[in-house]
Specification:
Blueprint lengths: L2 E5 L10 H8 L3 E3 L10 H14 L4 E6 L1 H10 L8 E5 L21 E5 L8 H11 L2 E4 L16 H13 L3
Parallel strand pairs: 1-2, 1-3, 3-4, 4-5, 5-6
Length: 172
C-alpha cells in the first residue's frame, strides 16, 4: 500500500479544499508541514518535504496542488530525491508574482498533471509545457478554475478516481 503526502499550495488548503477532505477521510494521507504557509520559503518547504518522505512507511505518492506542484519540481531536481510518483493538480505559472522559479528538467519519477482549461493562475498551454518539461502525463478536466475550494468541488470524486487510476498504474 502506498503512503500519500499532501502538499498544499500557498496558505495551506483550507477546511473545504479537496486535499483537506481527502486527508480527513484517508488515514494513509498526511500533510507535509513547512514553518509557514503564508510565506513560502523554498529551503523550508524542501526540508519539510524531506521529513515527510523520510517518515513514510512504504512507497510514497505526492499529492500536490498549486505551489505544492512547483515544490515537487524543485525537490525532484535535488540529488537523491525520489518517490513512487506525483499527482500534480493545477501547477501555477512560475512567472506570476510571488512564485518560485521551477526547473524544466524531467522529474525523477512518474507524474500526472491534472489541468483546468480556465485556471486563472496558469493557461492550459502552460500546463502542457510542464508536462513536456517534466515528462509527466496530463489530464484536462474542463473548466474548473484553479481546482480548489473556490471551484466548488467538495470532496472532488473525479480527482479521487484519477488518483486511484494513477496509483494503480504505478503498481501500488
Amino acid at each position: 500500500m502506498a503512503d500519500y503526502i499532501i502538499l498544499p499550495g500557498y496558505t495551506g488548503s483550507g477546511e473545504g479544499h479537496w486535499q483537506s477532505l481527502w486527508q480527513k477521510a484517508e488515514p494513509r494521507m498526511r500533510r507535509f508541514a513547512p514553518a509557514s504557509w503564508d510565506r513560502p520559503d523554498s529551503d523550508d518547504w524542501i526540508a519539510a518535504l524531506d521529513r515527510a518522505v523520510g517518515e513514510a512507511q512504504g512507497p510514497t505518492v505526492l499529492v500536490a496542488h498549486s505551489l505544492g506542484c512547483l515544490l515537487v519540481a524543485q525537490w525532484s531536481a535535488l540529488p537523491g530525491r525520489s518517490v513512487a510518483g506525483a499527482f500534480l493538480v493545477a501547477p501555477p505559472d512560475p512567472e506570476a508574482p510571488g512564485f518560485i522559479t521551477v526547473p524544466r528538467g524531467r522529474l525523477g519519477f512518474p507524474a500526472l498533471i491534472v489541468a483546468s482549461s480556465n485556471d486563472p493562475y496558469a493557461t492550459l498551454d502552460r500546463q502542457h509545457r510542464y508536462a513536456a518539461d517534466w515528462g509527466a502525463g496530463i489530464v484536462g478536466i474542463g473548466a474548473r478554475g484553479h481546482i480548489n475550494s473556490a471551484s466548488g468541488l467538495g470532496d472532488w470524486p473525479e480527482g479521487r478516481n484519477l488518483l486511484r487510476a494513477f496509483t494503480a498504474g504505478l503498481g501500488l
